[in-house]
Amino acid sequence: MKYSVIVKEDKLDGGYFAYVPELKGCFTQAETLDELKVNIKEAIEISIEDINENSIPKFLGVWEVEINNATYANN
């Protein structure tokens, strides 16, 4: 799968900064563009793993709900 990566020069600390808008919290920084490419790939992989782990619905239980039909008979 392909992701759009926004790459910016980090003028404050030097080096470069990258993030993936489609993946919340997926960002990294590095001193060189080559390092940045490796780092952002790792950040994407971690983000995808986190999404997969957290997307499994948690079992909360089984409910039994009783409805009294007499309540609705007068409406």
Task: Explain this structure.
With 75 residues, this protein is an alpha+beta fold. The chain has one domain: Double Stranded RNA Binding Domain (2-Layer Sandwich). Helix content is 36%, strand content 16%. It is built from two helices and three strands, in the order βββαα. A three-stranded antiparallel beta sheet has the order 1-2-3, with helices on one face. Strand 2 and strand 3 form a beta hairpin. The radius of gyration is 24 Å and the shape is rod-shaped. The mean pLDDT is 85.
Which helices and strands, and how do they pair?
Layout: E1 6-9, E2 16-19, E3 27-30, H1 33-54, H2 69-73
Antiparallel strand pairs: 1-2, 2-3
Supply database-style keywords:
alpha+beta; 36% helix; single chain; 3 strands; three-stranded antiparallel beta sheet; 75 residues; Double Stranded RNA Binding Domain; 2 helices
Give the uncertain stretches in residue-range form: none
Distance between the termini: 55 Å
Q: Pairing-aware structural class of the strands and helices?
A: alpha+beta
Which whole number gives the mean pLDDT?
85
Describe the oligomeric state of these chains in a short phrase: single chain
**Major sheet, described briefly?**
3 strands, antiparallel
Give the CATH level 1 class.
Alpha Beta
**Strand percent estimate:** 15-25%
**What is the name of the CATH topology?**
Double Stranded RNA Binding Domain
